[in-house]
Write a structure and sequence with these properties.
This protein has 101 residues and is an all-beta fold. Helices cover 0% and strands 32% of the residues. The chain has one domain. Strand 6 and strand 7 form a beta hairpin.
Length: 101
């Protein structure tokens, strides 16, 4: 799927919803719970997340791929975990603040 920053997506198998913060220029396969994510206006297919993709997503957390080219903001949590290209997306850590010494 070709996406751009600001695109909103929903999971086909749980309640997870995300907004794209950063996206690579090429097509990307974004999944939640093992199923491809859908545009917000599409109806979820139902079902349950796959056993290997059921770690859940957390509200307000940013998820990034290993290369750092894809970043998603979770706007509604759910049971499915987020992934792209066969890899699980990791929660983006906070940037360390500079020392005030």
């Amino acid at each position: 799927m070709s996406i751009k920053p600001g695109t909103r997506l929903r999971s086909a198998v749980c309640t997870t919803e995300v907004m794209v913060v950063a996206a690579p220029p090429e097509e990307v396969d974004i999944r939640c719970g093992g199923a491809a994510m859908l545009p917000m206006d599409a109806e979820p297919s139902g079902g349950t997340p796959a056993a290997d993709a059921a770690d859940g997503s957390l509200l307000g957390k940013r998820y990034v791929n290993e290369a750092g080219t894809l970043e998603l903001l979770c706007t509604k949590p759910g049971e499915g975990s987020l992934g792209s290209g066969g890899q699980a997306l990791a929660v983006k850590g906070a940037k360390p603040l500079p020392s005030s010494d």
